[in-house]
Write a structure and sequence with these properties.
This protein has 376 residues and is α+β, with helices and mostly antiparallel strands. It folds into 3 domains: 218 residues, no CATH class; 32 residues; 100 residues, no CATH class. It has 11 helices and 14 strands. The strands form 3 sheets. A 6-stranded antiparallel β-sheet has the order 11-10-9-12-13-14. It is elongated and about 100 Å long.
């Protein structure tokens, strides 16, 4: 089938006499975005964060509407991150072009600085193939040249994780099996069905089975041309075990500190200079009523939809009281210290929250309750 090469980049220089173009193509944008830029994994990551945010807000007693509104803030960085990755995938796909000739393979790439890499067919020791459900695939090239190829310079046109011995790769090309057949034809000089049989081995587990029905290669140094399927890179077991051990150690250390207090750092607050005991009750239409626990007078009314931080903190504490079968009568104590720190203490359980850890704006929301006069 004749190809229209006008849709692709021009070659950096005219081909020598007797050399012809066998195939020319670009990576598939969708496949490049999914497999090289991992857009799917990033979307799953933000989806899990969104679920965690919703469940965390719900566990602290936040209403469904407020929990949903709070979780929506994650959508902005999610869309931005995925958009940036998609844009990069489009730029890399637009700048890339692979050309197979009767003498060489040309890689044209580079978004900011266009570059060309020329690989003579004689320097290819092995070419493998991996296809995917959509028909696209990858064809990495193992070179017999001892000269080191830069992994970072070639990325993403390189086989993943082959850092020590870099393998240039035709990445995410459409109709990968047909392209592999054309490459086999160029390498072996055997056109037609014999070339196709060399690359139809996506599920093959060993190279001996892959070439059992294929004709013998023409040259000894090409005995393994198209003879093995790509296997996903194996992460070193030592690194996996070390990472797992580090995670388990961190979990064990945190658990030990939380249960025993051994190894923990305890902050000693300065002398308290002011405190006020408050009670919080639900009012009509979503309002929150704040009372002075000493004289039972109304201090403030938090309008519906306002003072989100106070609502989140108090609903979390109220939920803990409900689980402990504690009523709403015991007060909460706001305390201001000489150093400016402000804490909120549940007098029924002794749990203390350092409000300064949530920022000055959120701390000021509680601090304002300490200065308000009772409404008589």
């Amino acid at each position: 089938m004749k190809q229209d090469f006008s849709q692709f980049k021009e070659l950096p220089a005219p081909l020598p006499a007797g050399e012809r173009v066998i195939w020319q193509g670009k990576p598939s944008f969708k496949a490049l975005a999914l497999r090289s830029f991992h857009i799917r994994e990033v979307a799953i990551y933000f989806g899990l964060l969104l679920i965690w945010r919703l469940s965390s807000n719900w566990s602290h007693g936040v209403s469904a509407g407020e929990a949903f509104t709070s979780a929506l803030w994650l959508i902005v960085p999610a869309i931005s991150g995925i958009g940036v990755l998609a844009g990069l995938a489009w730029l890399f796909q637009r700048a890339a072009c692979y050309t197979i000739t009767s003498k060489r393979i040309l890689f044209q790439f580079g978004v900011a600085l266009p570059m060309t890499m020329n690989i003579p067919l004689g320097k290819i020791a092995n070419a493998a193939l991996k296809t995917y459900r959509d028909g696209s695939g990858d064809i990495p090239l193992r070179l017999n040249d001892e000269g080191r190829v830069s992994y970072l310079l070639l990325w993403p046109h390189v086989r993943p994780w082959r850092l020590r011995v870099t393998e240039p790769m035709l990445n995410s090309i459409p109709d990968a099996a047909k392209v592999a057949a054309k490459l086999a034809e160029a390498l072996t000089g055997k056109p037609g069905p014999s070339a196709i049989s060399l690359v139809n081995f996506d599920e093959v587990s060993s190279s001996s089975n892959a070439i059992a029905n294929s004709p013998p290669p023409l040259q000894p140094e090409r005995r393994r041309i198209m003879s093995e399927a790509i296997h996903e890179p194996v992460v070193p077991k030592g690194g996996v075990l070390a990472g797992a051990a580090l995670i388990l150690f961190a979990l064990a250390a945190v658990t030990t500190v939380r249960l025993t207090g051994v190894g923990g750092t305890h902050m000693t607050l300065p002398a308290a200079i002011e405190s006020r005991d408050l009670r919080f009750e639900d009012g009509q239409h979503g309002a929150v009523l704040v009372f002075d626990a000493n004289d039972q007078q109304l201090v403030d009314t938090l309008a519906p939809g306002s003072n989100g931080f106070i609502r989140v903190v108090m609903r979390g504490l109220a939920r803990e009281r409900k689980l402990g079968d504690i009523g709403a009568q015991p007060p909460f104590r706001l305390t201001r210290y000489a150093g400016g720190e402000i804490t909120l203490t549940d007098m029924s359980s002794g749990k203390q929250i350092d409000l300064g850890a949530f920022g000055s704006t959120n701390t000021e929301a509680f601090a304002s309750l300490m200065n308000l006069r009772s409404v008589k």
